[in-house]
Write a structure and sequence with these properties.
alpha+beta
Length: about 170
């Protein structure tokens, strides 16, 4: 299977706040690429609200945190992906991604994951890459397990509940 050509398009505080508010028109005005109804929808709003707060605290986080998965050939926003934050003091970054349901099963999650793994590998401050996956999210587990992630523990997430934590070297 040939993967789609994607890039993660980074956003600014105005775009984060517009998406968090569900205002697609304002998000499109602030974003380098058009967003989508899915990205401005209720499933994504909590992520954008957190990213807006991070941006307000430190605008430099925008280069690391969640952005738009952009299909270079279709010129379409197909989901969101990025790290939860810049590398921590130990050099760990955590990946997060979600593909619009209308674009799933086409290789976008894999393409976004590979783009993020390349980004981590190219940054000398990153030593460890982490993913946290709900036990019932079998597609995400099936994908990440192909990239050398191993289970290192469990955690409770206020939105997702129980998550298994997996890591690999950058």
């Amino acid at each position: 299977m040939t993967l789609p050509r994607v890039r993660i398009v980074h956003l600014n505080g105005t775009a984060f706040r517009a998406l968090a508010a569900g205002d697609l028109e304002a998000a499109d005005a602030a974003s380098p690429v058009p967003a989508s109804a899915y990205l401005a929808g209720p499933e994504c709003r909590g992520v954008w609200l957190r990213r807006a707060g991070q941006f307000d605290d430190d605008p430099a986080t925008a280069a690391w945190v969640t952005g738009i998965i952009w299909d270079e050939d279709a010129h379409a926003a197909v989901g969101r992906a990025g790290f939860h934050a810049p590398p921590d003091a130990d050099g760990t970054v955590e990946i997060g991604y979600a593909v619009d349901p209308s674009y799933r099963r086409r290789g976008y999650a894999r393409a976004a994951l590979e783009a993020l793994l390349r980004r981590a590998a190219d940054d000398e401050t990153v030593r460890t890459v982490r993913v946290s996956i709900r036990p019932d999210n079998l597609p995400s587990y099936a994908l990440t397990s192909q990239y050398g992630f191993t289970k290192v523990g469990e955690q409770w997430d206020d939105e997702d509940g129980l998550e298994y934590v997996y890591e690999r070297a950058a």
